[in-house]
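Example 3.2
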Amino acid sequence: MSRPISIPDHMLPADGRFGSGPSKVREEQVGALARAGRSLLGTSHRQAPVKDMVGRIREGLGDFLELPDGYEILLGLGGASTFWDSAAFSLVREKAQHAAFGEFGAKFAAVTDNAPFLQPSSIRTSEPGTRTEVVEEEGVDVYAWPQNETSTGVMAPVRRPDGVERATPGSDGALVVVDATSAAGGTAVDLQQTDVYYFSPQKNFASDGGLWFGAFSPAAIERIEAIAASGRWVPDVLSLNTALENSRKNQTYNTPGLAGLVMLDDQVRWLNEQGGMAWAAARTKDSSDRVYAWAEASEFARPFVTAAGDRSTVVTTVDFDDAVDATAISKTLRAHGVVDVEPYRKLGRNQLRIATFTAVDPEDVSALLSCIDLIVDQL
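Structure, written as tokens:
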């Protein structure tokens, strides 16, 4: 019988959380939660203390994302997967086109494609680990894709499709709707290239799931209001018009999880104090560059995403030779308190997936890679 593999304590990361969501929560966020115990938790979300906090979050996100004039930060309950239903109801007039190059882009595409009140969607796909793009198409009024595909570690540029003019209020232009769930808070973006940039806060923003936030352009807001006035039936809990009206009051339609808002408030403040979007993007690039450089130099591992320009800076994926059991590596790491580096379950690869979100210390990433080398030597 083989002996259990032992990793010396001095080699281990100071914090062993590398999950792709939920993600590492900083100790200071937990402290903020404890301090909120008497003043916020267990109180009404329609009263001033909670509404003031939501207002701070909206303002802080606007500062971090460098919100253009006229754009608004909206929020609602249910997370990004619920937002897909809301977008089908409240953003797509007739037809959407999707770039689906992973699990989550494909899920949003399925929502609009199956909506009985919309035309079948145009869906452009590619093999896992590669990327495709949307293209100009007559009749399409929403173009959608994920900025970062969490399942595969592929990152896509955020830019309007060639030939598609920017939508403006009063125009008939198509909207660009970008899923930024695992990208926002850790990558750079020019919001002028989007009309809706939406995300759940359990990745770079290190909060709980169950909420969605988004930066909406004036054209997107006009689309929401026009569809609401069109007579299309939209459930109130999924209506973006309802979210718009409530967000402007710094509240949600129904009761949110206050603990997640408290942690998000602290994380947004921290990110802005560190230097905002530019600082966060540089930090995640530092961490992810360490992973890719290690994998490229390794004798037994390689980056899963072969095109260097498509590699994510916030969710890194590394394939291993058949002779090396990635499951055994992750099992050994977990026994030493280093957790959640398994690949996306449906991908089914001999792989590790290492999140390099903003809260993750780049030095902990280097320590993790040294631990993997040690484990492989002993397997």
